[in-house]
Write a structure and sequence with these properties.
Blueprint (H helix, E strand, L loop, with lengths): L1 H37 L3 H12 L6 H17 L3 H14 L6 H17 L3 H18 L2 H17 L3 H18 L2 H17 L3 H18 L2 H17 L3 H18 L2 H17 L3 H18 L2 H18 L2 H17 L3 H17 L3 H60 L1 H63 L6 H15 L8 H23 L1 H6 L7 E4 H18 L3 E6 L6 E4 L1 H17 L5 E8 L3 E8 L6 H4 L11 H7 L5 H11 L3 E7 L3 E9 L15 E2 L2 E4 L1 E5 L3 H13 L3 E5 L2 H11 L3 E5 L7 H10 L6 E5 L4 H10 L3 E4 L4 H9 L3 E4 L4 E2 L5 H9 L1 H14 L2 H17 L3 H15 L1 H5 L4 H16 L1
Parallel strand pairs: 2-4, 10-11, 10-12, 12-13, 13-14
Antiparallel strand pairs: 1-3, 4-5, 5-7, 6-7, 8-16, 9-15
Helix pairs in contact: 1-2, 2-3, 3-4, 4-5, 5-6, 6-7, 7-8, 7-9, 8-9, 9-10, 9-11, 10-11, 11-12, 12-13, 13-14, 13-15, 14-15, 15-16, 15-17, 16-17, 17-18, 20-21, 20-23, 23-24, 24-27, 28-33, 29-30, 34-35, 34-38, 35-36, 36-38
Length: 940
């Protein structure tokens, strides 16, 4: 135990020491960086840089900053060796893709340092590398600066041809993108070439223009350079005093700036000019000064020039040994750096030195080499001059020959012109005639084309007007249809309201109550089915209605329709007569709903357009099927209107629509339905006396059967066995459906949201799941997806009031076993549940109808809470919660058939589901207030 404790303490101590050491090193490194930035002494800065760069803790960015600072400082103090070293490190530490400007500057400055060291050829190499980077940077001025620097390097290597070529390239760029300073600098460089070509007057003229620009810009360094170069021009043109004056002006400025490079150059110039005017002491002083500054900045070219002039001075002063030693060093440097001019001059001085030492043979030999070299240089210049002369001569000769040929050609043209004048005149006349003919023909064609175009435009205009009129008519008719859509639902709604009023007024005996309620239910079911068809507008517009053929008793259907229309006829004081000529039963296979829809439409139209008299419904059998006739003593239809009475949105005329209402859709839809079943509707009418509409349907009589759709509300004693999970967010709806499922003999697990539904499904494993689609916390679609992922494989039905066909198709596509609508369709519930649950015989009849009066009272009692929730969520701007409120109210209102609440709840729910309308708050206030008003009115 003690040894383990010691080991732990030792490890802890080592960790502490390591952390302390790292922290101390980091602080020390930070302190050294601050010292480096503040250091002004060059040796101290070198020492700090060396210590910092030896550390592995520095980032690449910090290293590059040190390289850049050290290179800059070394260059400023003319320590070109160190400057070159750090610029190379800076190039290696930077990447062009990441740091393009820094990498470019590192390469360019290597060329600048090499130039100041007098290593012109190496400088050209680095300048060229930097030039390619400037091209990649797409910087014209950087390119021009480098072109000028390369030209200056070639100038110092006495290659005037290449120097001038690069200067000219730079000059083109400066003239387009450069400043006045840039343009003056390049002219200054070009003037140096003129001096080397002995065109001193031209060079001096350029220098004077450049000097005025530099003086205007306040560029003192540029003025000093011009003074120095003007001194060179005057020196080489033999104007020694002027040369001496301008050399001294330049020297004074560079002494004030301590520019070692320029000081070496100007001292060298002054040494040469003083030697020429025989001021040997002054020449000797300046040559030594030039040599000192050249050695200070390690510039080989300047050292070569200083040694060369010093050797000449020493030779004149008689110091032969010193002159020989300096001359040998000068020639060695000239050979190394390929300075042809110094090599040539060195031969002449060496010949003089050999003669002064008594070595006349060597002196003569060197003199011959000097003369031969001079001749070769002269020969090259002569050859160039001859080439220029030859080019000029050949050019002049060629120009003369061209002039002769032109004169001969002119003579030939004149002769041809004389011979062809008549031909030309005839050709002109022919062309004029041809032009006139073409013009006349073209005018004729244009006139015809214009007429045709006008006809086409007129025709197209008429077509557009016709289309516009049709569109306007269609819009008017459709607007009329939308305003009067109640035409299709008025008859069953009238029967329901009439029966309800009679019940409320006690006009029926207690024994008849069940029968009267069945009548109301039949009309309500028909109204629900009719509304479903009207809502599914895509079926009507695309003619995609599908027939649902089944067995049914045609006589019973006619009796139902007759019963529905009787109340409407009695209210108008009309006599409604049924003339049945096919017997008590007549079973057929047709679409019961569509046949019923057609007969209701025909009868309701007959009653609506008849003010007095009677309406007769006659049915008889034909050879191919049955024929229905609806005969009235109403207003009749004019012959012109009778032709279009079966078109969409058409009635006799606009006055009929205003007097009697209706959408004009009924007869068109009835005709289409009849044609889909293989029949048709025919109409006969006499205006002012009445009309007769005849419906022909091909069919044959079958033996009586009991179709599923005709199951009574009270059915045989069959119960269901199993466990059903019900997920419904509205408590009253949940209790109603639970009560109904319990009457079927089922065990019910009732939950209020999708999250609880998933939990109960995975723990209780019900036989069937009923999921409401819109619920709080987790909706039905999310719950269904989660159940599928968990491997739940029992039947799951979508339970919602969203009865649009495309939504039903979406639910089935997602994998739901089926769809159950709200309000509750008990027969549909029983039929679909029986497909997945066990059906057990019962000992007595089972009444599917259940008493929901207590649930309705409970729902109405909750209206105060619903109103408060609507107000709070609307004031808070919580549209999601507001939509859940409207959907919850809508579902319960539909379940309990509270029609006055259904409509405002439905409109608010649709508006909130429309994200754009909800975000714009378009009419939202009115919809919320309308629903709250209906809830409060219903409560009262």
């Amino acid at each position: 135990m003690p040894s383990q404790l010691k080991r732990s303490l030792l490890i802890g101590l080592m960790v502490y020491i390591s952390v302390f050491a790292v922290s101390s090193f980091a602080k020390q490194q930070s302190s050294m960086l601050e010292q480096f930035d503040l250091a002004e002494n060059w040796p101290q800065k070198q020492l700090l840089a060396s210590e910092l760069l030896s550390s592995v803790q520095l980032s690449d960015k910090q290293k590059n900053a040190i390289y850049s600072e050290m290179a800059k400082n070394a260059f400023e103090i003319s320590d070109y060796t160190q400057a070159l070293h750090y610029y190379k490190l800076l190039e290696q530490g930077s990447d062009f893709n990441d740091l393009p400007e820094l990498h470019f500057r590192a390469v360019k400055m290597q060329g600048v340092v090499l130039y100041y060291q007098g290593l012109m050829q190496q400088a050209v190499i680095d300048y060229s590398r930097a030039l390619s980077l400037a091209v990649r940077l797409n910087s014209p001025l950087k390119q021009a600066n480098l072109l000028s620097n390369i030209g200056l390097s070639y100038f110092d290597m006495y290659n005037m041809e290449l120097a001038l070529d690069y200067y000219q390239q730079a000059k083109v760029i400066y003239e387009q993108d450069g400043s006045a300073q840039d343009q003056a600098d390049i002219l200054h460089n070009i003037a140096g070439v003129y001096i080397r070509l002995s065109r001193y007057d031209s060079a001096l003229e350029i220098y004077r223009k450049v000097l005025s620009v530099f003086q205007a810009l306040g560029d003192e360094d540029g003025v000093a350079q011009v003074h120095g170069n003007m001194g060179v021009a005057y020196d080489e043109s033999g104007q020694n005093q002027l040369a001496l004056h301008y050399y001294q002006l330049a020297l004074r400025y560079y002494q004030s700036t301590n520019n070692a490079f320029q000081l070496s150059t100007r001292h060298n110039n002054l040494a040469n000019i003083n030697l020429k005017i025989n001021e040997l002491d002054a020449a000797y002083y300046h040559s030594n000064a030039a040599q000192g500054y050249a050695r200070q900045i390690d510039n080989k070219q300047l050292l070569l020039a200083a040694l060369h002039v010093l050797a000449k001075i020493q030779l004149v002063k008689g110091d032969i040994d010193a002159a020989k030693k300096n001359l040998e060093q000068s020639i060695a440097l000239a050979k190394q750096y390929k300075d042809e001019m110094r090599l040539r001059d060195g031969l002449g001085i060496e010949a003089l030195l050999s003669a002064s030492l008594g070595d006349f043979e060597r002196a003569m030999h060197l003199h011959d080499k000097f003369v031969e070299y001079q001749r070769s240089m002269t020969s090259e210049e002569i050859i160039k001059a001859l080439n220029v002369f030859q080019s000029q001569f050949e050019s002049n000769k060629l120009n003369q020959e061209i002039q002769d040929l032109k004169q001969t050609s002119r003579l030939q043209e004149l002769e041809i012109a004389k011979r062809s004048q008549l031909t030309i005149l005839l050709a002109i006349v022919f062309v004029l005639v041809l032009i006139c003919s073409v013009a006349l023909y073209r005018r004729t064609i244009e006139r015809k084309a214009k007429v045709q175009l006008e006809e086409k435009v007129e025709k197209r205009t008429q077509e557009l007007r016709s289309v516009a009129q049709k569109l306007q008519s269609a819009n008017e008719v459709k607007s009329q249809f939308l305003a009067n859509i109640s035409h299709e639902i008025r008859t069953p709604l009238t029967a329901i309201l009439g029966q309800t009023d009679d019940l409320l007024n006690g006009l029926y005996d207690t024994e008849q109550l069940g029968t009267e309620l069945l009548v109301i239910k039949k009309h309500s079911d028909h109204l629900k089915e009719l509304i479903n068809d009207v809502l599914d507008l895509s079926k009507i517009e695309a003619n995609r209605l599908e027939l649902s053929v089944c067995d049914f008793d045609l006589v019973q259907l006619v009796m139902d329709v007759y019963s529905m229309s009787s109340l409407q006829a009695r209210s108008k004081g009309l006599t409604l007569t049924l003339d049945n000529q096919i017997g008590e039963q007549y079973w057929v296979k047709l679409d019961l709903m569509r046949v019923k829809q057609i007969l209701i439409n025909l009868l309701s139209n007959a009653v609506k357009f008849t003010q007095q008299g009677s309406v007769t419904l006659r049915i008889n059998e034909t050879a191919l099927g049955v024929q229905f006739a609806v005969i009235d003593t109403g207003i009749g239809i004019q012959a012109e209107q009778l032709k279009i009475v079966f078109e969409c949105f058409q009635q006799g005329d606009n006055t009929i629509s205003r007097r009697f209402g209706g959408s004009g859709l009924g007869l068109s839809l009835s005709q289409q339905l009849a044609m889909m079943m293989g029949g048709y509707i025919n109409a006969q009418s006499e205006y002012g006396k009445g009309s007769e509409f005849m419906l022909y349907l091909p069919c044959k009589q079958y033996l009586p059967g009991i179709p599923v759709s005709s199951l009574p509300v009270t059915t045989t004693a069959k119960t269901l066995a199993g466990k059903v999970l019900l997920a419904e967010d509205h408590p009253d709806n949940r209790r109603l459906i639970t009560r109904f499922l319990n009457t079927l003999g089922l065990d019910v697990i009732a939950v209020s949201n999708g999250e609880e539904a998933v939990e109960q499904c995975l723990s209780e494993f019900p036989d069937v799941v009923l999921l409401d689609i819109q619920m709080p916390i987790m909706d039905g679609l999310t719950a269904f997806d989660l159940l599928e992922k968990c491997g739940f494989n029992k039947p799951v039905f979508a339970l919602t009031a969203n009865a649009m066909s495309h939504e039903i198709a979406d639910y089935l596509a997602l994998g739901f076993s089926g769809y159950l609508s709200k309000p509750l369709d008990k027969e549909d519930f029983y039929t679909k549940l029986s497909e997945h649950l066990s059906v057990l015989p019962a000992s007595k009849e089972m009444a599917i109808d259940i008493d929901v009066s207590d649930l309705i009272r409970s729902f109405v009692a909750s209206f105060d809470d619903e109103v408060n929730a609507l107000k709070d969520h609307y004031q808070q701007g919580d549209l999601s919660a507001l939509q859940q409120d409207s959907h919850r109210i809508l579902g319960a209102a539909q379940m309990f058939a509270l029609d006055s609440v259904i409509q405002p709840a439905l409109l608010l729910d649709k508006a909130l589901l429309n994200s754009t309308e909800a975000e714009n708050n378009t009419g939202l206030t009115e919809l919320v207030e309308s629903l709250i008003h209906e809830l409060e009115q219903f409560k009262v």
